[in-house]
Amino acid sequence: MKRWCVFLYDIYLYLLRQYMIMKDKDFIKENLIRKICGEIVLSQEPGFVIKKWRNIFKVSQKEIANEMGVTPSVISDYESNRRTSPGIKIIKKIINSLIKISERKGGEFLREFYTLSGNDLVTSSILDVKEFKLPITVKEFCEKTNCLIVGREDLLENQIYGYSLVDSLKAILELTPMELVKIYGYTTNRALIFSNVTSGRSSMVAIKVTNLKPSLVILHGPEKVDEVAKRIAEIEGIVLGVTRAKNLNELKGILKRGFR
Fold first, then answer.
1. Alpha carbon of 223 to those of 36, 53, 145, 197, 202: distances in Å?
2. Which architecture, in CATH terms, is 120-258?
């Protein structure tokens, strides 16, 4: 009898954990909807913000048009700001359509967002973070930050939607792999800039174990980039660069001037 009660209690705990996980996901999803909605409403060019998030979700104009029951030209007009700024109902319909399509495809971005959301333990490791309203290419980012490319120059036309400046020593020494992924912000399509770097090997190994790959990694500090770091960047399809900034304050200044 005692064993049977323990078994039932274990089932109860399992179901309770699953319920809490679903509640957490619903809460995070609602936060995501509010974030996107607010960003669109407050933007002077809402169509460009809609396009940005559609690209982040990896959804085509045709897919979202079919989901909403409109023609692709309607979506195109909104994204190019040819139509009057959409109202709240249309904006929510667009966002919900993106989420539904993403879930049908396996929810890759949503799973990534759930992983990246909600942990204050990493805040001391993040020195600066910014999300772009419009994407820029890796090449443009490197030009603005005076960055020397040392790996995967064939991927310079990839687009990024923000950057995170990270204290590499704190991130690597204090964070678990699950906590480490929080430095990516809202999407991995971004630049990760590591300060206090000696050779770059530890930073690239840390990225490899998280299984979430940024589009660009910039190292600040090394006189010479480790060959293992270059090899990881090559295998994982990550553009690798080195900033010429002399110190952290100069690096912060470059980022502030380049991406106000």
1. 41, 38, 17, 9, 15
2. 3-Layer(aba) Sandwich (3.40)
